[in-house]
Fold this sequence. Notes:
Layout: E1 2-3, E2 8-9, E3 22-26, E4 29-33, H1 36-40, H2 51-61, H3 67-81, E5 86-92, E6 99-106, H4 109-113, E7 116-117, H5 122-130, E8 134-136, E9 158-166, E10 169-178, H6 186-190
Antiparallel strand pairs: 1-2, 3-4, 5-6, 5-10, 6-7, 8-9, 9-10
Amino acid sequence: IWDEDRQRLLLGRDRxxxxxxxxxxxxxxxxxxxxxxxxxxxxxxxxxxxxxxxxEVGRDISSTLDVAKVMDRxxxxxxxxxxxxxxxxxxPDASGRTFRAIVAVGNxxxxxxxxxxxxxxxxxxxxVESGRAEYINETQTDPRAVQIAGTAQGDNERLMVAPLxxxxxxxxxxxxxxxxxxxxxxxxxxx
Length: 191
């Protein structure tokens, strides 16, 4: 709220923390919003990861021992910090032969949550099988691509996939989508 008489700005966030207040103060300007995505769209704004912000994410994630809540927080933070449209974490099902989303957030969450990842099939499945992280900035031209049922095929779909490893064994996988969006780069994989 801008107070014209006092020349003061009052910023606030909702009390439940569903929409946080994110901001950056620089000499001569204050940039703010309710999602990190809005700040990342400001031209010239640096995109490096702030260690203090990353520490806060770590505190938020580790504030509970409930695995479902931890995974949900990780998926939400990944989506926000990577300026993504959707993110999901897939874990092996009871048979251990396929992977299912234990959490999916964002625009395509409902369709992603129904997805079954088979190691070796599709981009995500091939990266589960190989155990390596990769970003694909033009999924529509990747020969491994498999369209997720219930989603529209579009241009400039970006996907970043990172296996969750215990030693050399893949215990899960995180996938993050930008549709359309800025291409992923090496610094995104460092996240």
